[in-house]
Structure formats: C-alpha cells, structure tokens
C-alpha cells in the first residue's frame, strides 16, 4: 500500500495543478472572450445603451440607472416589492440626490 | 546506570486532595540487569517507573541517568531522553487502535525523522524475532492479547533503547504467555539491555530471568 | 531526504491514517467543506466577473443622459429643449433618444423598443435581440406583428438579429426606425424620451451637469460615472444578499467544523498521551494536528475553487444565475469573461484555511501540554 502522505501529495498536487490551470485558463479565456466583449462595448457606443439587460421583469429594473423615481415602491428602501429583483435592488443614489436640494436653503429668495 | 536519591513525588500538591505517592526513595539500578519492583497496588511502583522513565519529574530529590541529573530538565529534553534511552511496555499495551501493528511499532521513531524504509526494515526484524511477522499488516484491535503485547514490545524496541520499562507486563497474560514473555526478557539481558519492571506476579519476581527484586510499600522501599 | 522533511512526512502519514479510521465521516466533512467553498467562490467569481463586465462595456455609454421631470415624474423632452442645451460649452454632441417599453402578452415579457436612424433600420423592418428572438422563435426574414398600446396592429419584418454575444446588453431590444417608433407608440412629433450628451473632456462632465441643472431646472442629468457606480453597487448588493442568505449555512458549517475539529474525544486524548509517552514532543503532536487541519482545509479550498471556476465560466453559473438575476421572462444567455481577483482569492483562501486549522489546534494545545505519565495511571 502506498504511504498516506504520498497519496495526499498526489491528491493535493493534482488539486493545486487544477487550481493553477484554472488561473491560467482564466487568462486564456479572458483573451479568447475579449473580442466579443469589445463588440458589446461597440454596441453600447453605437446605440447609446446605459444598462445591462439582466433584469427584464419590470421597467424600473430593466434600466436601474435611468428608472423613474416614482415607480412602484422603488423610492422607499424598506418597501416590499412584487418582484424579487426589486427587493434586492436599492434605488441608485444619483436618482435621489437631485431632491436633496429641496430640503436645504435656496440660493435665491423664494 | 540510574541513581535515585531522596526522591519524593506528590500529586495535587497544595490542594485538599494532596497525595504523596513516594516518600524518599534511594535506589541504584544497575545496567544490563533485570530489576523488578514488587509491591501491592498503591505502593508507588508505577509512579517510580514514570519518574525513572522521564514521563514525570519528582517533586523533590534527584534522578541521575548515567551520572547526569535529569530531574530538573525541561520537558523538551526529557522527551528526547525518553525517546532515545527508554522503551515502554505498558500494562494496557496502549496501542493506537485502527492502525496496523507495523504502524504502531514505528510510531516512536517518527519524531527522529529516520526514513520510513529503514524503520520498516527494523520493525520487520523485530517482528521476526517476536514471531509476529504474519500479523504485521493486521489492525491491532484484531490481535490477541499476547500478540498485542508483542507489538507493544516491538514498539518499545524500535528506537533501540538502553533501558526497557515494563509496567505489570504479565497482568493481562495467561501463564503460557507470561512464560513466553519471560523468555523474551532473557533475550533483552542477552542483548545487554537494562530492564526495569513492576510486578506482583510470582511467576515474574521468582523467575531466574529477574536478577534483583526491590520491594515497595506505601511509597517506601522495603526488604523484598 | 532531509530528516525534517522525513519527519513531516511521518506526521502526515500518521494523521491521515488516523483520519482514515473514520473514512465516511471525514470524507463527508471534506465534501461539505468543499461545497461551502464552491458556493462562496462561485458567488465571488460570478459577481466579480459581472462587475468587471458592466464596468468595461458601460464605459462606452453616453457621458450624460438628460431626462426631463414634470411634477416629479419622468416626462418627454419637448421640441426646442435640445436647442437650449446646445448652447452649453463643452458639449460635443447632443442627440435626442427615442425608446420605451412594450409588453408582449404572447410571452408575457417586456421589450425595450428603441428608434434608430432610417439608414440603419428601414421602415417596416426591425432588428431584434437574440434572447427575444429565441423566446418568440423568430428567424431572419420572419414577419412579426405587435399590437400597439392604441390597439392597432403593426407588422414588421425581421431584418437582422443582434449578435448572441451581446445578449447581456440587448436581450430584449427591438430596434426600429424613428418613423415606425413614433407611429407605433403615437409618439408626439418633435418629442424625445431623453437626451444623450457627449462631452469631450471628462473633467468637464460635472460642470456641465451643474450648468444643465441651472439652465434647465426641470432636467435630471444622469452621469456615466453614476451609472457605473450604480452597477458596482448593484453587484455588491446582490453578493451581500446572497451572502446573507448563505450566512445560516456558513454558520451551521462553522459550528459543525468547530465541533468536529475542537471536540476532543476521550479516545483522542488517550492517544495523545500515548504518543507523548513513547517519545513524541508536544510540538510533534501539535504539528501532526496542524497538518490535519491544513490538509483538510487546503484540499477543500482547492477542490471548491476549481469546481466554482468551472461552474461559473463553463456552465454559466447555472446554480446561482436565477438568484442573482431575479424573476423575468427573458433571461439572456451570456458567457462571462473571467475576472479573477488575486485579493479575492487570497481572502477566500485565508477564511477557509485559517479558521479550520486554528480550530483543530485549540484543544490539541491543551491536551498536548498535559503530563505524559497520564497513560500509566
């Protein structure tokens, strides 16, 4: 019977090799998939897209960066939502920022 | 070989259950001979073995090994002396369950960093001497009592120690096996090893293989 | 071999032989451990790749989008609005955009309609995102009818399909000519959905946004950097949510591992006593256990990570996609470009290997420092 340490050495060696291969493969795959990504960037540039089409269930999740602040429940962080995505997505800070001025002093007399 | 002077040992010192196991032992153990400590249980003979075998330190008094005082050494050094000089055969054998006889035998040599091939070779020689060669690969819990003790003996010998310490070696053996053990004991003497054992088994203490019997009672030496 | 190395090999031999005594239990533990690493690593790799992807492709989106607000609601850009912006210095290009949503009852999905110049898409024809085409079973040259919100039926010819490589961005896109767009939605002439501005100097973007807000108080400028930041935080958010959901499982495993690693049975204690009695130093016992912890946790980490890598980049993170994507009809199929972050891996490695190894050591330390004469008593 082989020594347990030899066995462990082989197993760990193979695992470490697979780990190293995965890192090398990551580099290879990045290069291989880069042209498709460049194409995506070109499409963004051409169509003027602003968002990923990851969450298409509702209009305020389809374009989170553009969404209407007054869409369903979106402006209250503790609000529940019909869609799971809505429960996972906070409204982007820049969409609430313009209203901050309404709370402060105005520059000109009202 | 080993000199003890005014050795005392207390357990739980300073607590209500303080207990003095040894009350001042003076003893010299000669090299190359078999010395037996005889006494009833609780007489302190096992405690004395642990002090001589560097498993514990005396509360007071001195233990000298080949003239060197070992009673005050830090644990690291005690462990090294124990590994190099002493081989232990415990009453309960104290083998590691789930491992093969061979694995158990070479265990004490692991910290030395000797190559495995060398250890296995040495273990095989010991197995042959102890007529245990056919059981080397068996797990220790599958072995009979006599076989287990021979594995324990082989383990005690793997580091080639000068002193063998055996605590009640025949307590778990029948007469035939006990006689076999005594034969092995004679082999130790022939090989020039010093043996120190405890026993109250007449078969052991009255045997011709034992050169000297030291009586003990209540933590003191008595005339045997 | 060097005695030190040989000794470590002996210690590894022993600890593995000891583990092998409870093969099923220990392999089960390793499997559960590797599974946990797999889940965490999948999550980390997936969200990191998405973050990188969003950051890379959206870097080409317009610098500023101007929306008009009426009574706090997003409204159409009226005629003449564009000209007012035109006078802002630093704006290189301005373009009124036309886009909107259309609900298709056939597959119960929302599409994004977007108008394109006539030279790109001829009147009467459309270009489709690949996900949408798949959902409706459309091929190049097919005819498709949509009933407009006004109730009229419009037929279009599929003139082109967008590349399947772009599904992540264009899953639900329907590109049609401006003329068709206005007719289909009854969009008032001269009005636009919003305005895209190109700014030559990126340093100027904030100034221009401020000027816009001053000149057109009813406008809401959305900067590209804000969009990019939004996407970074969306995936942080989602990673966090999944981690929160997983926290229970992580905790349960931590308890299990702690119990397994730190609970020292009487049997094990006795064995440590035996080892010490036969000449092992306290340090040897601890090193032996340390090897156990390191071997178990390192193999769990390596196995879990490699499995996660394959899962995310070759199987499209099939297990987590639904959780991370939410609830929709049109799921874009996309392959991610691996973005492996060294720090992320190091963090994961540290938090999987270190605690377990430490948990293994704690009780051993106590047991190994007891007197070796215990075995004689």
Structural class of chain C: alpha+beta
From the spread of the alpha carbons, the general shape of chain C counts as elongated
Give, in order, the helices and strands of chain C.
HHEEHEEEEHEEHEHEHEHHHHH
- Mean pLDDT of chain A, rounded to whole units? 76
Q: How does the major sheet of chain C shape up?
A: 6 strands, mixed
What is the percent of helical residues of chain A? 55-70%
| Helical run tally of chain C | 12
Verbal overview:
The complex is a heterotrimer of chains A (110), B (224) and C (377). With 110 residues, chain A is mainly α. Among the domains of chain A are: 4-35; 59-102, no CATH class. Chain A has 5 helices and no strands. Chain A has helices at residues 4-47, 59-62, 84-88, 93-96, 100-103. Residues 73-80 of chain A have low confidence and may be disordered. With 224 residues, chain B is an alpha/beta fold. Chain B has helices spanning 45-52, 75-85, 101-106, 116-129, 145-157, 175-190, 202-205, and strands at residues 2-11, 19-29, 34-38, 60-65, 68-69, 86-89, 163-167, 194-198, 212-217, 220-222. Chain B is globular and about 50 Å long. The two termini of chain B are 21 Å apart. With 377 residues, chain C is of the alpha+beta class. Chain C has 2 domains: 3-58 and 230-376, no CATH class; 62-224, no CATH class. Chain C contains 12 helices and 11 strands. In chain C, helix 2 (23-57) packs antiparallel against helix 12. In chain C, 44% of the residues are buried. Chains A and C meet through helix 1, helix 2, helix 3 and helix 4 of A and helix 1, helix 2, strand 5, helix 5 and strand 11 of C.
